[in-house]
Amino acid sequence: MTLPDAPAPDAILEAAIYAADLDAAETFYGDLLGLEKLIRIGDRHVFYRLGAAVLLVFNPDRTEDPPGNSDLPVPPHGARGPGHVCFTLDRASIAAMRARLEAAQVPIDTEFDWPNGARSLYVRDPAGNSVEFAEARLWSDM
C-alpha cells in the first residue's frame, strides 16, 4: 500500500496527565509551580497554558465518560497510573524551583546532569506523576 505524502507535525500543542484529585493537582501546578490556569471544569479537568502549549490535567474517571456536548465530540480517552511531564527551566531557575519545592516539603526524586551537561530535577505531583524540570538543551545533541 502506498500512502499519500503528509507533513510531519512540528510541535506538541497539548500533553495530558491524569489525577483523580483535581484540587491537589490545582494546588501543585497552579499555586506551587505558578502555571497559568486556562480553565477548570468541575471534577473533570483543569488546563494550564505554557507558552504555545497546554498541559491538560484530567480526572481519569471523568475523561472516560462520553462527551456531553455534541458541538465538541471529543472521544472518551485516558490513562491509568503515573505519567511524566517535563518543563523547561534554565539552570538557575531549576535551583530556585528546587528550593521552592523543598520549602513546600515536596520530596526530590533525583537531580543530576545528563552526559551533554543539561540539568534535570525530578519530583512527583500529588497523583504520583513524574514531573521533571530540565534545561531546554537536554535534547539538543540528539
Number of contiguous helices? 3
| Beta-strand segment tally | 8
Termini Cα gap:
32 Å
Task: Give the percentage of residues in beta strands.
Answer: 25-35%
Secondary structure class reads alpha/beta
Largest sheet: 4 strands, mixed
* Mean pLDDT over all positions: 92
H/E topology pattern:
EHEEEHEHEEE
Order of strands, widest sheet? 1-4-3-2
Rg calc: 17 Å
**Poorly predicted ranges (pLDDT <50, ≥5 residues)?**
none
Helix content: 10-25%
Gross morphology is: globular
Describe how the helices and strands are arranged.
Blueprint: E1 14-18, H1 22-32, E2 36-41, E3 45-50, E4 53-58, H2 60-63, E5 84-88, H3 91-103, E6 108-113, E7 119-124, E8 130-134
Parallel strand pairs: 1-4, 5-8
Antiparallel strand pairs: 2-3, 3-4, 6-7, 7-8
